[in-house]
């Protein structure tokens, strides 16, 4: 059983990647395989609503997202992580989840029943509204989102500072444990 974690940060080793790596370690401690992927260095375009995915089963835009989608499709879980810039998730992450949703929705709805949820990182504000915005992706696709001890948010500005947010780290590792437990229960 596998979970794909996708970082929407432009920094390959930034706070968002560190948070998702902590989730991945927790998933692995709980007996699941975890693969952390990054959008760093990629330019992920927005959906063109061309509907080619309904015919081909993949997105017509060739920017690396189809390869990521193939990994998500084969996994039981999917967790996304995004830094908050100016009060919302970065555009590449929102473009990615909207296109992933469109391909799934336009074909066999392969996201339905997968387990996961968003993790959001910021220096100060915009966390809960970004978390709520990203949750819509999970709900419209019929995905299962386990809870935790608080919202899946972490505070940190400078690189590495997010791991000093003890409550945030505890929240996301508890979330990852719940993801692992839910996947195991659904795949008995």
Helix- and strand-based class?
alpha/beta
**Could you tell me the mean pLDDT?**
96
Percent helix, as a range, is: 40-55%
First CA to last CA: what distance? 11 Å
Count of DSSP strands: 6
Q: Which of globular, elongated, flat, extended, rod-shaped describes the shape?
A: globular
Detail the poorly predicted runs.
none
Largest sheet: 6 strands, mixed
The secondary-structure element order is EHEHHEEHEHEH
Give me the Rg, rounded: 15 Å
Tally the helices: what do you get?
6
What does this structure look like?
The chain has 188 residues and is α/β, with parallel strands linked by helices. The protein is built from six helices and six strands, in the order βαβααββαβαβα. The protein has helices spanning 15-29, 52-56, 65-74, 91-106, 127-140, 166-186, and strands at residues 2-7, 33-38, 77-85, 88-89, 115-122, 153-155. Helix 5 (127-140) links the parallel strand 5 (115-122) and strand 6 (153-155). Helix 1 (15-29) packs across helix 6 (166-186). The radius of gyration is 15 Å and the shape is globular.
